[in-house]
């Protein structure tokens, strides 16, 4: 049946099931029933236990029969590790006895796989029971806090019914009044011995509270031993759900000490002067009618900077900023009462500094004049601190970096606005969750252990995470995690300050690539200048020099022929050098073109052999061609000139570095590709040098005075043109054992 009230909450569900098909069907079924879920799937005991220990889930769905494991065993682990998480068993067939046993062990429900229509009801019922348990637990917690608050209250608390029968007193009442609980509970309120002042206001109290209002006042009371004491009491009616009065709550404070102090001040001016002058707080007395200072204590003189004589020539208006005078005048009419407290006032010191103050004032008779005694407390630092806290709070909320606060259990307790903006998750979705919800890839156990070891010992950890947003988009974050300590030095929270560095990392990577390219370009330029200086100047000098010598009139024919041969070789070398520079320029700039035609590979290799066999003979080398019949008959679409160019450079290279032995041209087909190899018995190449052998201007023993002539571009050009044809070139060689350069061209792609 379609879930009539789809659960709008995103449910985190752990599924223990060894049949992947059942997991897929379960996901599809939950989606069709209107549930929004995040499914974590495990198929064995070890993965299941690891998930229970590392993550928190709203629901656990488990098969009963699994390889080497049972749903009953899984349930017992759930009740041990996360007892509040609902566990529903989903299986094929199972006996009624096992079902009963599952439910007795604490399973929320049991659903047969062929009756999955009951699953939405089971899930909603299980989640509803969890919510009810949580609500009950919260209510019980609040009730316990309230009970402890009342029990530990520094004020006396009495609760009566509407008839005035006492039904509750707290320990403070017993302490103050001397009555025991047994003496009071169930007795009428009048059993308490009140003093004469209470008798005078008794009618006023009852008329006020029975009318549904709060009464406050002071009166004399008697303790159980008859001793008199002053109480300040607030009596409030308590209303039931129908807004009818069901009880009365009386909260009283023993103010005997305060009364005695007031009386002492009134009765003894000597004591008053002593308490006044030596008080560590700023105090003064001013006349109500004229507002003039009548007396100031030493702390006021020190704090405000005025001398005693200067104070006596001033009124209380003179220590107020001009903009506060109007407010002072408005409030003076309200100061005729008894003791008053007010804050939000500002005072001006002699040096014109402005301070924030709290004021305690009391009406007194000072030498026959109506006056008020003032106690001024400088709260400037407190106000500044409160402002700083507010600013700090706003700064954290509006911070351009992500800020996450977690408890020592790793669960998120606070996030700022930037965290919501970056991750796409709302506060409600992240509070109470583990920060791992953001992880795109789990960090290794070693890294995780190092992180937790660092912060648990009180140190700061810094590093980077590869995270994912709610949308699934990945991003890089630079994180600093710091422990937060209480007054006793105990870690209470962890502060995670993170910044999205995705763009920064990409920029850094781009800069590194650009730097490498620039350095490579610089090295290439240097090599080019050295190379062109040698490879152009050397044959050019030969051409110029021998062109001059050959023009001498008295030169004989043999000498002239020898000079012409040198002149021709220098010209060929210069032409080859310039051709190589043109070829490499076209390749590097991307302007080298390829012209594809249907070409017989055998004809290319035979022509190359015909061209290079005489050169090998001239050098005293043997040249062999080993071509399979399939290569001899192979016709493929390619660029003949580019293949010939690559083979020409490889063969020239082989002849150059081979003193004696054999040059072999080998052609074969393997793995759907054409493989053409040039094999020599020359000096070979060291393994380290092979890594860069196809770079520009590279010979194994390349220096400013090379042993072998040449531009060093041959192998680079060969690789470039073969890559252009979609192929590759690689080398196998050993020092002193010759080299084998192989061209590989994929036939299917040409």
Compact summary:
With 750 residues, the protein is α+β, with helices and mostly antiparallel strands.
- Stretches where pLDDT is under 50 for at least 5 consecutive residues are 697-711
What percent of residues adopt helix (DSSP H or I)? 40-55%
Give the overall silhouette.
elongated
Biggest sheet layout: 5 strands, parallel
Tally of strands:
29
Computed CA radius of gyration, to the nearest angstrom: 48 Å
* Class computed from helices, strands and strand pairing: alpha+beta
Strand order of the largest sheet: 2-1-3-6-7
Mean pLDDT, all residues: 81
Count of alpha and pi helical runs? 24
Amino-to-carboxy terminus distance: 60 Å
Proportion of residues in extended strands: 25-35%
Layout: helices, strands, pairs:
Blueprint: E1 10-16, H1 20-32, E2 36-42, H2 45-54, E3 59-62, E4 65-66, E5 69-70, H3 71-81, E6 87-91, H4 96-104, E7 109-112, H5 119-151, E8 156-161, E9 166-169, H6 171-177, H7 181-184, H8 196-210, E10 215-222, E11 228-239, E12 245-254, H9 256-267, H10 269-277, E13 282-287, E14 293-296, H11 298-304, H12 308-312, H13 325-332, E15 340-348, E16 354-366, E17 369-378, H14 380-397, E18 402-407, E19 412-415, H15 417-423, H16 427-430, H17 445-456, E20 461-468, E21 474-485, E22 491-500, H18 502-550, H19 557-589, E23 597-600, H20 601-618, E24 622-627, H21 629-633, E25 635-638, H22 640-656, E26 662-670, E27 673-680, H23 687-690, H24 714-724, E28 728-733, E29 739-746
Parallel strand pairs: 1-2, 1-3, 3-6, 6-7, 24-26
Antiparallel strand pairs: 4-5, 8-9, 8-12, 10-11, 11-12, 13-14, 13-17, 15-16, 16-17, 18-19, 18-22, 20-21, 21-22, 23-25, 26-27, 27-29, 28-29
Helix pairs in contact: 2-3, 18-19, 19-24, 20-22, 22-24
């Amino acid at each position: 049946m379609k879930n009539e009230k789809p659960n709008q909450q995103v449910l985190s569900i752990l599924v223990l099931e060894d049949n992947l098909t059942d997991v897929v069907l379960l996901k599809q079924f939950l989606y069709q029933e209107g549930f929004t879920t995040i499914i974590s799937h495990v198929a064995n005991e070890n993965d299941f236990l690891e998930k229970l220990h590392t993550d928190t889930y709203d629901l656990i769905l488990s098969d009963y029969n699994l390889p080497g494991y049972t749903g009953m065993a899984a349930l017992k682990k759930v009740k041990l590790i996360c007892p509040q998480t609902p566990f529903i068993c989903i299986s094929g067939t199972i006996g009624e006895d096992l079902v009963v046993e599952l439910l007795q062990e604490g399973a929320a429900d049991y659903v047969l796989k062929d009756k999955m229509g009951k699953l939405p009801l089971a899930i909603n019922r299980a989640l509803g029971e969890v919510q009810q348990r949580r609500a009950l637990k919260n209510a019980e917690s609040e009730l316990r806090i309230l009970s402890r608050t009342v029990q530990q209250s520094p004020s006396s608390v009495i609760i009566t019914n509407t008839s005035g029968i006492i039904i509750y007193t707290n320990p403070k009442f017993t302490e103050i009044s001397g009555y025991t609980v047994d003496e009071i509970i169930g007795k009428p309120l009048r059993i308490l011995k009140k003093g004469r002042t209470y008798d005078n206001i008794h009618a006023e109290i009852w008329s006020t509270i029975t009318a549904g209002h709060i009464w406050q006042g002071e009166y004399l009371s008697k303790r159980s031993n008859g001793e008199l004491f002053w109480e300040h009491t607030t009596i409030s009616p308590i209303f039931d759900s129908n807004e009818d009065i069901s009880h009365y709550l009386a909260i009283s404070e023993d103010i005997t000490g305060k009364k005695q102090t007031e009386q002492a001040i009134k009765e003894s001016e000597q004591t008053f002067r002593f308490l006044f002058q030596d008080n560590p707080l700023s105090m003064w007395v001013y006349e109500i009618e004229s507002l003039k200072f009548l007396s100031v204590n030493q702390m006021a003189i020190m704090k405000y900077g005025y001398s005693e004589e200067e104070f006596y020539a001033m009124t209380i208006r003179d220590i107020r900023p001009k903009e506060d005078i109007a407010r002072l005048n408005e409030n003076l009419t309200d100061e005729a009462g008894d003791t008053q407290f007010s804050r939000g006032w500002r005072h001006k010191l002699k040096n014109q500094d402005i301070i924030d103050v709290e004021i305690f004032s009391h009406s007194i008779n000072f030498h026959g004049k109506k006056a008020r005694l003032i106690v001024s407390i400088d709260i400037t630092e407190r106000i500044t601190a409160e402002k700083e806290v507010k600013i700090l709070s706003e700064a954290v909320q509006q911070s351009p970096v992500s800020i996450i606060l977690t408890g020592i259990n790793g669960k998120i307790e606070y996030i700022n606005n930037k965290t919501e903006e970056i991750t796409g998750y709302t506060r409600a979705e992240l509070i109470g969750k583990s920060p791992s919800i953001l992880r795109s890839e789990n960090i290794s156990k070693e890294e995780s252990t190092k992180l937790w070891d660092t912060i648990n010992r009180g140190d700061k950890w810094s590093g980077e995470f590869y995270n994912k947003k709610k949308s699934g988009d990945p991003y890089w974050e630079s994180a600093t995690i710091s422990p937060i300590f209480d007054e006793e030095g105990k870690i209470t929270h962890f502060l995670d300050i993170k910044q999205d560095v995705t763009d920064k990392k990409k920029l850094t990577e781009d800069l590194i690539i650009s730097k490498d390219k620039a350095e490579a370009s610089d090295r290439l330029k240097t090599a080019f200048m050295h190379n062109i200086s040698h490879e152009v100047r050397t044959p050019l000098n030969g051409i110029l020099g021998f062109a001059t010598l050959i023009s001498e009139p008295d030169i004989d024919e043999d000498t002239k022929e020898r000079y012409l041969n040198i002149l021709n070789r220098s010209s060929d070398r210069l032409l080859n050098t310039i051709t190589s520079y043109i070829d490499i320029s076209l390749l590097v700039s991307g302007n080298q073109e390829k012209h594809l035609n249907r070409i017989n590979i055998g004809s290319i290799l035979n022509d190359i052999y015909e061209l290079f066999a005489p050169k090998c003979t001239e050098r005293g080398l043997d040249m062999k061609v080993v071509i399979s019949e399939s290569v001899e008959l192979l016709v493929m679409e390619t660029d003949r000139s580019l293949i010939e160019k690559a083979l020409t450079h490889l063969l020239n290279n082989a002849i150059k570095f081979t003193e004696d032995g054999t040059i072999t041209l080998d052609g074969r087909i393997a793995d759907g590709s054409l493989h053409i190899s040039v094999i020599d018995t020359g000096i070979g190449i060291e393994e380290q040098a092979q890594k860069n052998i196809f770079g520009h201007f590279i010979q194994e023993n390349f220096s400013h005075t090379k042993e072998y002539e040449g531009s060093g571009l041959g192998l680079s050009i060969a690789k470039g043109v073969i890559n252009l044809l979609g192929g590759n070139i690689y080398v196998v060689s050993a020092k002193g054992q010759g080299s084998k350069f192989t061209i590989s061209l994929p036939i299917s792609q040409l």
